[in-house]
Design goal:
Blueprint (H helix, E strand, L loop, with lengths): L2 H12 L7 E5 L12 E5 L7 H8 L5 E8 L6 E9 L2 H11 L3 E2 L2 E2 L1 E4 L10 E5 L11 H11 L2 E6 L2 E6 L1 H10 L3 E3 L7 E6 H10 L3 E4 L8 H11 L3 H12 L4 E4 L7 E4 L10 E7 L3 H4 L5 H13 L3 E8 L15 E7 L4 H15 L1
Parallel strand pairs: 9-13, 16-17
Antiparallel strand pairs: 1-8, 2-4, 2-7, 3-4, 5-6, 9-10, 10-12, 11-12, 14-15, 15-16, 17-18
GO molecular function: RNA binding; tRNA-intron lyase activity
EC number: 4.6.1.16
InterPro entries: Nucleotide-bd_a/b_plait_sf, RBD_domain_sf, RRM2_NsCP33-like, RRM_dom, tRNA_endonuc-like_dom_sf, tRNA_intron_Endo_cat-like_sf, tRNA_intron_Endonuc_cat-like, tRNA_intron_Endonuc_N
């Protein structure tokens, strides 16, 4: 059965199911040039890049009429991408050819024409309504659901992680859906990914596209996986609930161990933007998890660390409401309370106060 036939049958089956609604689109081919215009989309910008430095980098290719870097409204930080407008289409084409993949202040740029919405080989895929991100692009939820449709992955338990062997097609979907960390090997036709226990169980239990094999060589059921993972990580039920909560927001979730938090969360693909949130998961069931923010000094240091890498601290309080943690089904009764914590800057507060008092007078 070819892929297109499989997708059509899936779409027809979905028409009788009130859950996701499918629409079809075709991503442009990387071998067929996108329609040229004078507006370039520039992603992968370093936090230190401002509009002046971006203008200087592209002005050598022709007359630049406008440069815009997109900033987060709440924090004022760069979102890691922007737009460069040229007076002539040919100048924009030359700039794209020369600067795509080149480093600017330490980070490689990814450049495309602004009308080029999806990059990659031509492939007809089902786009699930409601899975797009804020800009209308297929988000992480879209690619995760696509994994559920066309893939059957096999993983191997290895301590507190799961090793996954993927062919090129599966590797492409894993990269687009942002699952796992690529492990560099000498194999050319196969690639290996290392999954955390939360995302491995998410692929197995929620998306049902991953079979996990234990050390005894047998495929483990979700109940067996739950018992094993809960024994390896004391807070696994709360961490998995938090992981699902963030994924359902169409966010990309990565490990945050290098920043001293549980996760980091992205609104867009990590290749395009920086992560926006440093996520801490607290549990009413586990007193040790709450000890991380018990003292004011702990809170202050965590906020300073998150602010130093341009991230907002997001604290997720997982409440069990008296439910147990014997199986994944128990998590349906769990609730999550979100709190964003930002550093208080006295100078900004005084400025805001001055503006308000001036408006009253």
């Amino acid at each position: 059965m070819n892929r297109l036939t499989m997708f059509v049958r899936t779409a027809l089956a979905a028409s009788h199911n009130p859950m996701p609604v499918f629409r079809f689109y075709c991503s442009p081919s990387s071998s067929v040039p996108a329609p040229a215009n004078n507006k370039l989309f520039v992603a992968g910008l370093s936090w230190s890049v401002d509009e002046r430095s971006l203008l200087d980098a592209f002005s050598n290719f022709g007359e630049v009429t406008e440069v815009r870097i997109m900033y987060d409204k709440a924090t004022g930080r760069s979102r890691g991408f922007g737009f460069v407008y040229f007076a002539k289409d040919d100048d924009a084409q030359n700039a794209k050819d020369a600067m795509d993949g080149k480093a600017l202040l330490g980070r490689p740029l990814r450049i495309s024409f602004a009308l080029e919405k999806v990059r990659g080989a031509p492939i007809v895929v089902p786009c699930i309504r409601g899975s797009e991100d804020a800009d209308g692009f297929p988000g992480a939820k879209h690619w995760a659901l696509l994994l559920h449709v066309i893939c059957c992955l096999n993983g191997l338990i290895s301590g507190c992680s799961v090793l996954l062997e993927a062919d090129p097609e599966q590797s492409e979907l894993l990269n687009r859906a942002c699952f796992g960390r690529l492990v560099i090997t000498s194999e050319k036709d196969k690639q290996w990914y290392e999954l955390g226990l939360e995302e491995a169980f998410y692929l197995s239990n929620a998306l049902r596209c991953l079979n996990i094999v234990g050390n005894d060589g047998t495929v483990k059921s979700n109940a067996e996986l739950w018992d094993y993972m809960s024994s390896r990580i004391e807070m696994f039920p709360e961490l998995y609930k938090a992981y699902c909560h963030l994924r359902m927001k169409n966010w990309v979730v990565r490990s945050g161990s290098q920043y001293g938090v549980d996760y980091v969360a992205y609104h867009h693909h990590p290749a395009l933007v920086h992560s926006e949130y440093a996520v801490l998961v607290l549990s009413e069931r586990n007193a040790n998890s709450n000890a991380r923010l018990r003292l004011w000094s702990d809170m202050y240091c965590t906020i300073r660390l998150a602010g130093g890498v341009a991230k907002t601290l997001l604290v997720l309080h997982v409440q069990g409401n008296g439910s147990g943690t014997d199986c994944a089904a128990c998590l349906k009764n769990f609730e999550i309370e979100e709190r964003t914590i930002r550093r208080w800057i006295p100078e900004q507060s005084r400025e805001e106060k001055g503006v308000k008092s001036h408006s009253r007078t």
